[in-house]
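hey team, just a heads up i'm posting the complex here instead of the shared drive bc the drive is being weird again. everything in one block, sequence lines first with there labels, then the predicted structure for the whole assembly after. its two chains so it's a bit long, scroll down
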Amino acid sequence: MSFGKAVKIGMLGMGTVGGGVAQIIERNGELLAGKTDINLTLQRVLVRDPSRRRAVDLPPQTYTTDPDVVIRDPAISVVVELMGGIEPARTLISAALKENKDVVTANKDLMAQHGRELLQLARRCGRNIYYEASAGGGIPLVRPLKHCLVANRIKCIIGIINGTTNYILTRMSCDDMDFQEALARAQKLGFAEADPSSDIEGRDAAYKLAILAGIAFNCPVDPGELSIEGIKNVTRADIHYARELGYTIKLLAIGEEKPGGLVLRVHPALVSLAHPLASVHDEFNALFIEGDLIGEAMFYGRGAGALPTASAVVADIIDAVRSYERADKGLYANNLGKTKLLPVSVLNSRFYVRFLAQDRPGVFGALATVFGDEGVSLDMIIQKRKKNGIAEIVLVTHDVSEERFNRSLEKALRLPSIQPDAGVFRVLA
Amino acid sequence: MSFGKAVKIGMLGMGTVGGGVAQIIERNGELLAGKTDINLTLQRVLVRDPSRRRAVDLPPQTYTTDPDVVIRDPAISVVVELMGGIEPARTLISAALKENKDVVTANKDLMAQHGRELLQLARRCGRNIYYEASAGGGIPLVRPLKHCLVANRIKCIIGIINGTTNYILTRMSCDDMDFQEALARAQKLGFAEADPSSDIEGRDAAYKLAILAGIAFNCPVDPGELSIEGIKNVTRADIHYARELGYTIKLLAIGEEKPGGLVLRVHPALVSLAHPLASVHDEFNALFIEGDLIGEAMFYGRGAGALPTASAVVADIIDAVRSYERADKGLYANNLGKTKLLPVSVLNSRFYVRFLAQDRPGVFGALATVFGDEGVSLDMIIQKRKKNGIAEIVLVTHDVSEERFNRSLEKALRLPSIQPDAGVFRVLA
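-- predicted structure starts here --
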């Protein structure tokens, strides 16, 4: 590599994604320089154990166990944080900004929970934080939302942004597995962690939604305030009935602007098979966007993995080197106040409900009457005989307020012939 | 609007897209300033008839019939070209660059045919040309390819990048229309022009492919050298058989890097219903990308229309104001030589063929033998009886070289029981 501007990078952490970054610079460095005139070198890398053998061998003096060696090196203009977790990442990023470095990070937890304060600090320091890799892995989401769609008022974003749950739901849907079986398969293939609770319960998706909604609606979001429901209640039966009605079930992360504030939520939902999100299978992710100018758009790809994520990190490094959207120009930093989140109950939704009922004359009539009396109108109905005198009844309502729906559901579940639990999911409009 | 940096824009042309830009600045100007700290004003606009009433009323002194008034105004830093066509757009863009303005353009024909020379000129002038809107309308394609995926070696791009033909093929597929009926419908709805030949014959897609491939593979491409085939030969029968085999038919624009050069082509092809491109319906567009790092990704949205396209133009204006990727930094300008294009015949493909044959014993055997003798192995076969002693035979081959396939097809068409024309399409691997 004999051309291009030489740029020295400091990196905090050399795990999966950090290894990917090193690999990219080694393998595609010349290609990158050809496209950008920028020649990247990993100058200093913070690691726990400098003597450990790694897939990419950097010169031994590159490694250090002292973060100050990375952060205070005057030759380094960009610090890449890939340690994950809140501390010490938060302290080190702050220190790097104060040392006049731009920061690139893939840290979802940190940007979701402390993004506002860190972006404010970056602005004060005349620097910027680039965080494309923190949500959506290799899929360009942050840049398109920030830059390509900058002229749009975003109406809503709807994401399939957790690969683990999408893999599980795909297996349940395509291979007729039950939840536990699909989870075990996901774990075996490395798509789910040993403790999968953050994915399964929707917290991972909620953090990513907080980051993406912050950009889409140009205001910081506290992920602790989101309404979150995981996929544990999705059964094979629900997936079958959904398919029969022309839907698939996906874990969606949805952000919408409503009068008076934003509604942000993560929950499983029925998605029409005709919707572009319905064909996002396996571990793939996608973000569907509706803007006032562009109408509908969608970005699809791999939301995780070493090289896809490292690809986003390297793109951010290039933008940092170019001082793109540097905070000292005041860009994207006007709106760092607190955002009003509205509860999901302000929404009208369509609902899918699956009841188990005694298979006796009049049961369906009683059920339908409960909904009718509450003014909840039904769009689709399936009733099927099961074994042992039990019938399964599936209803899909028209749009109804959450309050009204919940009141009618409660009444329905008190009917003597209806069993006291039901599968209940929203239907994507 | 009381905050933000005031930026004065010059615009050449005020047709559909230009009107959209004016509308966006009027309607979303404040939103835009809130996101970017940049306050846009249309300072000078070149029009044919300044007295004409328009949807957005700019102050009368804004309009001029003299391009020099726009290009030479020292208050203007960015010139937006929305006239379309080669001349006078080419001359005016060159003049604007020489006057030290950055240029934003939505001009597909110009960027496809003269992009190389204009980008070279921009570099010499220390300015840049932004052309997101020239391919893919409102869908972010140029930026993601250039910036987000900058670290990737792009293996291939596969686009549905012509809305007219995708609308027609969707109607043929979903509503069982024939080509003429679907075209008439597209024309009625404004998705096809009175003279639809550039769309139908694939030239529009080829121009867009030339632009996108130039970015993806980091080298300029001469659109005149592309292999192009339109959708006129796609029949309802082919669409039905494709569906029976698990495929849909789409007009694809494909760019691939092969040893020794690029292969660029536009043609209809069978796309597996499981492929993300299969669910791109109606007038929507999408670009599917395979990169060595990110794996598969797809960008989906509206490839045309006043506001989607103007949305991309305004995003480019913002980047121009920020001097992002300014040519004087030498970015993306290293590779302006001539690119070697390889003929489609270097590829191996799967082929779909539909024959009409005499419904007599031995006909299928003879046909299969011709292919077998040439070493073309068959993956899927359908034979159906039609009226009047005619049978329809559909074959899908395994991967085979174009040369070998064409030789066997020629022999097959010389068989006495086979009618002399056949429906032949490639199958997306």
